[in-house]
Amino acid sequence: MWIILQRPADHRVDATSGVGADAHSIVIITQIHEINGQRDDLKKFKCHIDQVSIQLVRHYRQFYDSLLSLHFTLNDIDGAAGLVLDMCRCRDSLSIRKDRNESYKTCLGPIGSYHLREGLKIQIVPELLQKDSVFKMDSKQELVLFSNGKYVLSNKALVKLIIAYKGDGRIGELSRLMLSLQKELGTLEGGGLISDVIDACIQLGWLETAHDILDDMELAGAPIGSSTYMSLLTAYYKGKMAREAKALLKQMRKAGFVVDLSDEMVMTTCLLGVVDKNRMHTRTSTSIGNLGLAESLVREMKKQEKAILPVVVTLRVMEVIGHMKEQNMYCDKWMYKSEFLKFHKDLYRNLKASNTRTEAQSKRLEYVEAFRKWAGID
């Protein structure tokens, strides 16, 4: 792929500065870094791109999409969450940004193979957008969208966060992230995003997760609509989970819902799907929530299951190492360790054998633990 880097024609760019990459070229470089898995190089661009003027923000949507994609690829859920919050907070900073009439600021960005002893640098001008660019890049919209002047997460990005946090058993952190996002969106009343997440969990049968998030919201003083409580309560009744239903009903009464109905009447109402709006203070349907979010969760989980085989093949490197030892062949432990840390740093780090759900997952965990021990990875 050829990248055309033009000398900026605008008089506000110093003529002695040489060739500079404008917004189009920077995004092309971004996509190359994503293909090559060079997240660290992309992160070096971020501080400059975060500060572009409001007119250029939409042109850098692809940059944040690519960086977020690499965070997920490298199983860095904390990095992904941090980037998501940065993007949402960008909305507030955009509102106070003004047109910039000063000279375009230039900076150096990394480019080329990281195997070189002295990495190549390219001068970038994030504030410059050539109108007559000879190359237009294809822009994929998978994780980050741009709507109404701000960055927003796609369902695909949201479900990746949910699955990652749930898989690590970090529901409390998921709740805090969702609450922060909801505050940034300015939709605290009625639950909004958080209610959608809880409802999606209920639809998938993740009732414990749904209840944990609900508890977290109560502790944080964030109001959740009565319909979300009713949806979870209905799921408990239908699943014959009497103890959990009783505990939730107690919470609902404390929150001011169904205070004038007996337990039996509430159960009958849930199971029959008949709701008195004046007495229950909820919607008539118990089938609520963002159906698209639940469907996206199912699709993403199926996709991740299909990706398990390549991971298993990668982890079978232990068999190769064992054979090399038997044949007295040299084994570059440092190389194996470096590659593992690059692509699987946090793989199953918080998963215990007693918590594995299937025999296949248990076997994968065994491979990972054996490799970590051999490579000396804590």
TrEMBL record:
<keyword id="KW-0677">Repeat</keyword>
<feature type="repeat" description="PPR">
    <location>
        <begin position="225"/>
        <end position="259"/>
    </location>
</feature>
<dbReference type="InterPro" id="IPR002885">
    <property type="entry name" value="PPR_rpt"/>
</dbReference>
<dbReference type="Pfam" id="PF01535">
    <property type="entry name" value="PPR"/>
</dbReference>
<dbReference type="InterPro" id="IPR011990">
    <property type="entry name" value="TPR-like_helical_dom_sf"/>
</dbReference>
<comment type="similarity">
    <text>Belongs to the PPR family. P subfamily.</text>
</comment>
<protein>
    <submittedName>
        <fullName>Pentatricopeptide repeat-containing protein</fullName>
    </submittedName>
</protein>
